[in-house]
Amino acid sequence: MVYTAKSIAGLVEAVASRAPSSIALKSPFQSQTFTYQQLSSTSNALAGFLSMYGYEPKDVLMSDLPNVSENLMLQLACNRLGVTFATAKSIEAMTKFPKIKGAVTSSDSGFLSETVLPVPFLGGDFLMDLIHNGGLDEFNRESFAEKESDTVHACYGSPTSPYTNRQALEQGEDAAFELSMCEDDNVCVSITLCHAFGMGSGVCSAFTRGATVVLPAVGGIQGCGVPSERAAATLQVLKDEKCTLLFADTHTLKALPEPLAHGLPLRGGACKIGSGSTFLEETRKYSGVSLRTVGKK
To answer: Which segments constitute the AMP-dependent synthetase/ligase domain (predicted)?
Structure first.
């Protein structure tokens, strides 16, 4: 089954309407699992929460959340409202945004919490409690007005390089096609969600086929963090969640140890080897499996 929509949030809605009980997201280290229906309804309620606090189209919400379920949920909520999700990588980069409405920081001691920008902050722990303990129940919105494909979804770097719904969906469809993805795949996204490769190629490819996104316990919003730590978390997820496809970068792939016994159910994947989003003819090998490379042609 191939799902289509004009936006990332619309893609989730499309799967939820046809296969509501299919698993959309797993975050094993958080012991969290969401069906497509749960992902849709929770992100919808979070959008309602943000709307109540005045967030509207073209506002900018900064975040330094790592690869946790709340990161994806927040991006989907912003997508529903037409709010631009932006990553906080440095003070210099943040000052280039013309209209920052607010920010979500991963912890009280995180990068964002140490800034002096005059914007309201929402703590990651509070957001986690809001999402997982019924705090959003009263904010459900009755209708969903899908944004146009050219609406900006995120700025993962500079505000002069916006990432649109169209770009994300095209990257997702391209990856799903190249990897022959289907609804039975468990897709390990071992790359930051605050990057076009992680969100577009990784997450959106799974959504276009109604597959499952699996997030390893990795932190950081820039690059791959510590490759050895990301590799260890990735291998654990590949084994425990029986992942069939892997999205990773060269640093993580080089640091990945070989599985000790009986191999993995892994059948393919994509490895980012540089700038660009084109699937190349070159491949990389892991555990006897060929991974397609992605970069500039």
So the answer is: 13-88
From 129, 155, 181, the end of a domain falls on 155
Domain with 213, as residue range(s), is 164-295
Query: Domain holding 260: CATH number?
Result: 3.40.50.980
8 A C-beta contact, residue 59 and residue 101: yes
Is residue 31, in this structure, part of any structural domain at all?
no
User: Can you give the pLDDT at residue 223?
Assistant: 46
Strands (E) in the chain, as ranges, are 23-27, 32-35, 60-63, 84-87, 100-105, 121-123, 152-155, 163-164, 186-189, 212-214, 245-249, 268-272, 278-286, 289-295
Do 184 and 139 lie in one domain? The reply is no
Instruction: Work out the burial of residue 141: count CB atoms within 10 Å of its CB; fewer than 13 is exposed, 13-18 middle, 19 or more buried.
Output: middle
Is-contact 224 252, C-beta < 8 A? yes
